[in-house]
Amino acid sequence: MTLRIIPARFLPQVQGLLRIVTALLFLQHGTAKLFGFPHVAMFDKVTLLSLLGAAGVIELVGGFLLLIGLFTRPAAFILAGEMAVAYFGFHAFEAFWPILNKGELAALYCFVFLFFSVAGPGKFALDKE
């Protein structure tokens, strides 16, 4: 017998909640880069036709699609790829361990998005599976 705090029958609801909360947190990255809200000084001079500008567009569009649960699997796959590029392209060369190279968030987002690309959106989504 397995001890479960939340019964397995609630998995789709919890999965949907994880998707929504992750999307809301991730959307901040896109809005900070593209609209300056919330304000992050590092993104003050980001232009749309730059690497960070392109990342902001991917984060905004992908985050919104994830939030509403539309095209969840392909959107999550693209976001996982973006986060893998962010980790290996900008963090990993600083140090081996994510806690030292400040890449923990990119790595975590990468694997959460990879999960949604395989498992789907869960409940509360426009996608019908």
Structure commentary:
The chain is mainly alpha-helical. The chain has one domain (11-119). It is 64% helix and 0% strand.
Question: What layout of secondary structure does this protein have?
Answer:
Elements: H1 11-35, H2 51-68, H3 72-91, H4 98-101, H5 104-119
Helix pairs in contact: 1-2, 2-3, 3-5
Protein name: DoxX family protein
Main location: membrane
InterPro entries: DoxX (IPR032808), DoxX-like_oxidoreductase (IPR051907)
Tag the structure with descriptive keywords.
single chain; mainly alpha; 129 residues; 5 helices
Task: Provide a short characterization of the protein structure.
InterPro entries: DoxX, DoxX-like_oxidoreductase. The chain has helices at 11-35, 51-68, 72-91, 98-101, 104-119.
If you compute it from the alpha carbons, what radius of gyration comes out, rounded to the nearest whole angstrom? Answer: 16 Å
Helix content: 55-70%
- What general form does the structure show? globular
| Chain-averaged pLDDT | 95
Please count the beta strands (DSSP E, at least 2 residues each).
0
What is the total domain count?
Answer: 1
Could you list the spans in which at least 5 consecutive residues all have pLDDT below 50?
none
* First-residue to last-residue Cα separation: 30 Å
Question: Number of helical segments?
Answer: 5
Largest sheet: none
Order of helices and strands: HHHHH
Amount of beta strand: under 5%
Which secondary-structure class do the elements indicate? mainly alpha
InterPro entries: DoxX, DoxX-like_oxidoreductase
Keywords: Cell membrane, Membrane, Transmembrane, Transmembrane helix
Transmembrane segments: 48-70, 77-100, 106-126
Membrane topology: Multi-pass membrane protein
